[in-house]
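User: Sequence in, structure out. Go.
Assistant: Echoing your sequence, followed by the structure tokens.
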Amino acid sequence: MAELLVIRHGQASFGQDNYDVLSELGHRQAEAVGALLREINWVPDRLVTGTLNRQRDTLSSMGFSEGEEHSGFNEYDFGDLLNARFKGNIPDFVSGDRRAHFRTLRETVFEWQDAAFEGASETYKAFCERVEAAQKFATDTDAKRVLVISSGGVIGQMTSVALGADKQHMMNLNLQIKNTAMTRFMFSGPSFSLHEFNATPHFMSQARSELLSYS
């Protein structure tokens, strides 16, 4: 069996005009998880990221060289989903209140999954298909240790499918995933199974516990 280790990117720039930029904390989180992998001598045979800056920069701050890219590992576009759901009139509370933001995120994705609104640039079905394609791309290899840097929604989708869970479970998992958390799958040919979800041993010491974040 081979390992597919999927790591969520470090903290990005929540609430800023350009979210797709690692914060200072995000770089430190990436450094911490990279240091842990070297400490336990987990050396990847293959590196893959999505095409987003926050994913590529996480890999770099982990101390690895540039990897292959597959856009299927990119996050769904929440801003686009909001625009479609609210027809361009997004309520102020969505960006003004953190709790309201994530409640609206959850509700919007559930409606997106049910095709309850039109106008989004990507359907939920298309999202599922590209995530599946990205997974196949990463596991179609002779490598025994594949490292992927992706995002919460993609990891939630991969985990939900591996568990055979219903579609809403994808979002329940998505909202739990910590920045630079590690989710590990085992694969061999068509066999693909979850081994570990949302693990952050690199934050378990008192010195590093302050690095923990969810967004």
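User: And one key feature?
Assistant: The mean pLDDT is 94.
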